[in-house]
Amino acid sequence: MAHIVLLVTPLVLTGTTYVAFRYLTRWLGQKPGYLAGFLFYWLFWCLVPSWWILGSHGLVQIFQDMRPQFGQPAWLGLLMLIIPLLLGYGYAFPRAVKQANLTIILLSALIALVNGSLEELLWRGAYVSVFPESWFFGLFYPAIGFAVWHFAPQAVFPSRAPGGNLALVVVAGLVGLMWGWVALQSGSILWTTVSHVLFDFSGLGARVYFSS
After folding, report:
1. What is the per-residue pLDDT across 33-56, written as a single tens digit (0 to 9) for each?
2. Which of 10, 64, 95, 162 has the fewest Cβ atoms within 10 Å of its own Cβ atom?
3. pLDDT digits (tens, 9 = 90+) for 68-111
4. CA nearest 71: which of 11, 23, 138?
């Protein structure tokens, strides 16, 4: 059953979250609805299925420091964890920090912690646990799902980066492949979660709630 759930998750998740973002913003307003859309995604899609698949013990275990920590060869795993951070802090952060204050920085850190941890739990943790020997279903399939799902929140706030929505989705897919490789090789999402949280923070995502 877990295999079936994870196979249908990307398509159903993307469709339902897209509808949720559109409906909730119409009902609650753009910014409250945007946050509500993420709450729906985090709780209903990232946490609940992962908890059902992994169980309470599995949720803790998948974050543990397993071996090899970064895959084999270790230098390649480290590189895959660092490249997203070079992208985030080399491009996004210098632009974002100009529009930030202490409140935005603190809220962005909280959002990054929640989003990065819960996304890793689903897109890397659950898939690696259920498909530990499959490069397609344990790595490529969830990376594609992770990428495509990013179309949903952009229905409310389209990407302003060069290339627009599609570019963001492509970058998400490439980064998802990097994190997925480390998770599949190591059997853990400890270091991918650290990289993911730091990457998310580089965009200072709370700015969207304070923009005019």
Report:
1. 999 999 999 999 999 999 999 999
2. 162
3. 888 889 999 999 999 999 999 999 999 999 989 999 999 999 99
4. 138
CB 182 within 8 A of CB 70: yes
Phi-psi region of 101 (alpha: psi -120 to 50; beta: other; left: phi over 0): beta
In the predicted model, what is the mean pLDDT of the chain?
A: 95
Q: How far is CA 192 from CA 117, 143, 183, 200, 209, in A?
A: 9, 13, 7, 12, 27
**Helices in 88-163 by DSSP H: which ranges?**
93-96, 102-119, 127-130, 135, 141-149
pTM of the model: 0.96
pLDDT at position 211, please? 80
Q: At what angle do helices 102-119 and 190-202 cross, to 10 degrees?
A: 150
How far is residue 39's CA from residue 45's CA, in Å, rounded to a whole number?
Answer: 9
* Rounded alpha-carbon distances, angstroms, from residue 80 to 85, 158, 181, 189, 196: 9, 27, 8, 13, 11
